[in-house]
Amino acid sequence: xxxxxxxxxxxxxQVDRFVVCDSELSLYHVESTVNSExxxxxxxxxxxSAATLLSINSDTPYMKCVAWYLNYxxxxxxxxxxxxxxxxxxSLGQDHNSKFKDLIGKEFVPKHARxxxxxxxxxxxxxxxxxxxxxxxxxxxxxxxxxxxxYTPDIVPMEKVRLSAGETETTLLVTKPLYxxxxxxxxLSLCWLPRDQxxxxxxxxxxxxxxxxxxxxxxxxxxxxxxxxxxVDPYFHDxxxxxxxxxxxxxxxxxxxxxxxxxxxxxxxLTKVAWCPTRTGLLATLxxxxxxxxxxxxxxxxxxxxxxxxxxxxERSVQPCDNYIASFAWHPTSQNRMIVVTPNxxxxxxxxxxxxxxxxxPITSLMWACGRHxxxxxxxxxxxxxxxxxxxxMRLRALSRYGLDTEQVWRNHILAGNEDPQLxxxxxxxxxxxQYTEDMDQKSPGNKGSLVYAxxxxxxxxxxxxxxxxxxxxxxxxKQTDTQNLNEERILALQLCGWIKKGTDVDVGPFLxxxxxxxxxxxxxxxALFNLDIRRxxxxxxxxxxxEKGDLNLNVxxxxxxxxxxxxxxxxxEMCSTLxxxxxxxxxxxxxxxLTSETGSYDGVLYENKVAVRDRVAFACKFLSDSQxxxxxxxxxxxxxxxxxxxxxxxxxxxKDGVDLMESYVDRTGDVQTASYCMLQVSAxxxxxxxx
Length: 692
Prior knowledge:
This protein is of the alpha+beta class.
């Protein structure tokens, strides 16, 4: 304590109490206010805590230093060092039934009066109290008292000692210490060394000295100016901190010739340094007239192997309050917690938050350490409301052997979870490519295997100028529509789209049946309509409306289709154009777009992005001329490449365009797993195409 600035001490064993000392001693009790209101008379320390004043002791004037007794009984015994060098034992709310009640008021008096600078209780022999005093040319400056010393009448006469104004009380004065050390020098700081109860480290006027009480005539010392605030690291008993002016010195007692580290010099003099009792290697420092506490985190234990050996230090600052800080005290058990007090006795309860280090596990669980706690954050497998990270998806897919079904290649989309329509399109495309080439005789003339792997874009280009349109009758309707004659390449494209099976048969019936079985009523109706079978489309819609999970609105759509007329200015056409904008299902929208469009102008179908690419391409193959089809496929391919849409593999195949598309897909999703398996499935053919 310097001047009248308050100091603060936590009770060693009552972890909810602390004392503030300046001109008097004030005992406070700390309570949590998390689930309760602030009591009348309580002082707010933080958002979660408040302090209540329990007692005040004004019987020890001229206080210069205070030390709390370390043993359990008595709990509130304090030693007070005074300006005249006396050490007084006092209490705050002492237990009068305690066997130690006779200690209260006991005084320990040096031979010559001078200021008492520091006090330190021995952590093992709790009756020993060391006091450090100013210099006197005829006396020692380090006195070790036994607080249980008996009064000796032939040495010390009984005296009357004034304890407070207007009151006198007879007490015992002890003038014979157990040990006297440090003759003709001043002692500014003291601490007992935990590794040996007989060793006392003292910050003398010009040196740090280690006194061994087993041989008081000898001492180990080192000359230094950093003799204030000596304190031992509670987790590494050979590491000591001390300071002078604005500089902190870190010492290793195993190599005591010089400091192992000197911390950054501060612009103002230091007033206090203290090791954190709950955290390894964390040192807090305070400078004069500052609202900042600077922290030094010693990451590695220093070893006295070489002169160049230094611990790694992480330095940072915390600001517990806005006003200047007079003193602070670490809580003895609560992790990284401290109380700070300002010159006007305003107090703050503050926790120093740790830097958080993060770590990812191989199975994408996130873990982090904060102080002594280790936290883990893992995705809940049953929580379908959260979009899983791609790393989690790839791990789950790998566990299901995704990508490894080389026989039924289309099943890989089911192994992937059967949730992504793009993956479904990709694996059905690869399955058809593989199946087509396996069934073909590789040596037969006119083999289309390589062309299949090159995608529909290459298939369409190979047939430019070879197709003419002709008029075809509708099924169930007295109407004709211009469609393109299907040559071999367009049939191959329709097969690749999945509308017709491999062979010479161009019937879409089996495809419609499969869609109906899967409950894709709207898509099946649209495909039937695009194949000029309006009767089948109406039938499918009615079946869908009457099915268990069907939509009754499909009956309304079927009724609208049944009233179709090709008159341009008819009421039906006007009403259907309005209805199309109100429909949510894209396949129902394109059905009316097709029926209300002009011949040869089918943008309402071709550019409906919510309709599957394979259905739009198949539609284009049936209704667009060679030049129109080529332009449309080229434009659609570029869109798929830019978007990284896996449905575009149908167009690009496993050519360079396909690789570019897959690259965009990986950039967008991070799904390197799908890209790798895709290339592995057709690696041999892909390299063959690349060589050509």
